């Protein structure tokens, strides 16, 4: 079955067509793919929240705090999918150069990443030929000329490619729509040490452990960790230059909690390491506690 796309007016990776044709595809996807079209996409981009963080963030872990997981649990779809994806589509359309970078020499790794994501899409997606029906009702065209842009329209995760060059892992590509106080333009083509330079706890000892972690992650044996900070502002897109002062946030009284589920996945063909980030933002209770996991 083929779904024909009108590419003249479509954003990279996004299927477009006449209104009648889109309605026809909606009917087709509802009947064949089982897609639920009832979820709307009209919402306030500054208040896209999950109900909870689905893992224990209260038990401390020694940095870098990694643990293994199964590839079937890599990519998540949660209650904020429609809202987060609407924001991702907007950013990729309006601010693409700020949220997507790819070194031409990293295109093979980006294509391998595209294939791996398509092979591990969780329940709620249906891949049919050159199109993917998404849980929010959109149909996304697979554009191999723009692998990261395509992925940015399909999954909630931000995806960074770290490739080994001259003995260190370098950020050679990323679709990063939800940065938490950093700029993709500043980190692009930097090694791990350069990426983490402003982080106070990232001393020589931790840097060595992280580099060994990237060197040692094996194909089919991914690892994950999380971080946790409290924010006054729940906005997902929060870029900040290294030169800009971080605004003071009272961690006791800030009304929102932001946590990134960060995964390390080795691509077996190119050897690149994928650093994926699923962002959770939840409102704290009036007593400052988090919603129950």
Summarize this structure as a short list of keywords or feature phrases.
293 residues, alpha+beta, eight-stranded antiparallel beta sheet, three-stranded antiparallel beta sheet, 25% helix, 20% strand
Say how many strands there are. 11
Helix content: 10-25%
Q: What is the arithmetic mean of pLDDT?
A: 83
Order of helices and strands: HEHHEHEEEHEEHHHEEEE
Major β-sheet, in short?
8 strands, antiparallel
How many alpha or pi helices? 8
What Rg, in angstroms, do the CA atoms define? 19 Å
| Shape summary | globular
The protein's oligomeric status is: single chain
Query: Poorly predicted ranges (pLDDT <50, ≥5 residues)?
Result: 1-45
What is the domain total for the residues?
1
Structural class: alpha+beta
Strand content is: 15-25%
State the distance separating the first and last CA atoms: 41 Å
Write up this protein.
- The strands form two sheets. Strands 1, 2, 6, 7, 8, 9, 10 and 11 form an eight-stranded antiparallel sheet that branches. A three-stranded antiparallel sheet has the order 3-4-5, with helices on one face.
- It has one domain (19-36, 61-283).
- The model is unreliable at 1-45 (pLDDT under 50).
- Strand 4 (131-133) and strand 5 form a beta hairpin.
- It is built from eight helices and eleven strands.
- It is α+β, with helices and mostly antiparallel strands.
């Amino acid at each position: 079955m083929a779904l024909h796309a009108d590419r003249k007016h479509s954003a990279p990776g996004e299927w477009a067509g006449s209104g009648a044709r889109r309605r026809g595809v909606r009917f087709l996807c509802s009947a064949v793919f089982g897609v639920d079209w009832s979820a709307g996409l009209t919402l306030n981009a500054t208040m896209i929240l999950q109900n909870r963080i689905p893992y224990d963030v209260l038990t401390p872990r020694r940095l870098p705090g990694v643990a293994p997981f199964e590839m079937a649990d890599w990519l998540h779809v949660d209650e904020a999918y429609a809202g987060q994806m609407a924001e991702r589509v907007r950013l990729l359309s309006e601010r693409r150069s700020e949220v997507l970078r790819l070194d031409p020499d990293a295109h093979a790794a980006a294509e391998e990443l595209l294939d791996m994501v398509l092979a591990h899409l969780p329940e709620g997606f249906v891949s049919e030929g050159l199109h993917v029906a998404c849980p929010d009702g959109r149909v996304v065209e697979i554009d191999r000329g723009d692998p990261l842009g395509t992925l940015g329209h399909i999954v909630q995760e931000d995806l960074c490619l770290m490739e080994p060059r001259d003995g260190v892992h370098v950020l050679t590509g990323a679709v990063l729509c939800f940065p938490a106080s950093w700029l993709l333009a500043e980190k692009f083509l930097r090694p791990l040490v350069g990426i983490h330079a402003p982080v106070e706890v990232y001393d020589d000892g931790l840097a060595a452990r992280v580099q060994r972690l990237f060197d040692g992650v094996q194909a089919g044996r991914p690892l994950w960790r999380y971080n946790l900070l409290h924010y006054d502002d729940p906005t997902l897109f929060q870029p900040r230059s290294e030169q800009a002062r971080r605004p003071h946030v009272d961690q006791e009284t800030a009304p929102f909690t932001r946590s990134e589920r960060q995964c390390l996945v080795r691509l077996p063909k190119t050897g690149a390491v994928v650093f994926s980030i699923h962002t959770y933002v939840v409102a704290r209770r009036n007593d400052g506690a988090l919603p129950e996991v």
